[in-house]
Amino acid sequence: MAFVVFKSDYLLTMFFILAIVYGEPHSGSENGKAATSQNHITSSGSALFTTRNNTRIIVQRNGLAVLPCQVKWNPSATVSWIRRRDFQLLTVGLSTYSSDDRFLVEHARHMGHWSLRIKSVRDEDKGLYECQLNLYPTVSIFVELKVVEAVADIVGAPDLHIDEGSTLRLECKLKRATENPAYVFWYHDNKMVNYDIQDGFSVSSFQTPHNHHNNGVSSSSSSPISSSNISNGNHDGSSLNATTSVAPSIPQTTFLKVPSTSVLTIQEVHFKHAGNYTCAPSNARQTSITVHVLRGEKPAAMQHANRSTVEDGKSNSNSLKCKYQPLWVLTLLYLICMFNRINR
User: Fold this and answer.
1) pLDDT per residue over 197-231, tens digit each?
2) pTM: predicted TM-score of the whole model, two decimal places
3) Strands annotated E in 31-108
């Protein structure tokens, strides 16, 4: 009987030892999965993808992001996209499982492309995304999305001085842009002047409609597009359609090497052209510059101020003369009376 009890205790002890030895690594692998899976791919797993792990995609706010995932072989395996921030399953195969209609899979059957497209990118979209190949065991790569804000920049800002009668040329460029804007509006003070030809304003844009990129390297070619080729909708920029055929912008994984430039030109500057000018692209933060028109050696605004000061000085001098003139007359009469009194 004692032998049976001893044998049972021995078997129970061996069971716990085996459970600790074989169970602990399994638990550790589960706990460390999130920390290591982002940067680790087995040699056999990495051979399944053409896209490099930890690829970084830079997209400007409200732009179009395309996260690449190209599979080398085994086309029968299903490809899924997962957002790592909240482990949200976005797509499985060609089906979208997210209620957000901004997410869509772009698939090229014979090339193994399973790109994830995100329209109208927001700040909260930044972070890691997992492209998972549903094999056994599953294999994944990670793509990082970085969201930036594109800003407009006017050469010579914040102040520009120009002689009256000269030619004014304001050049507005984009910084940190991954896509060209659909349009650029120019404002003189609070008035949109893109189509104000009668007052001497002329706006032209030099855009890069064709942007080819390969593994994150983009190349661009420029072609001039006149603002007269664009049909004007609402002046607030809510609606504007190009009447000419322009190729759609291809999303970039890097900043544009040759971003679009909008130029405002006034052939002969007059005093009325002085003031604040604002460059407002459709997809970037606007910027402004103050133009001072010079008459002679001083800005026109300063001359007006000096002129008013001189006129005010003259009027004050005349008023002083008128104010003190009766006093001098009374003093003179008093002196004459005193002189006559003394002589008597």
Assistant:
1) 999 999 998 755 444 333 333 333 333 333 333 33
2) 0.60
3) 55-60, 65-67, 79-83, 88-92, 95-96, 103-108
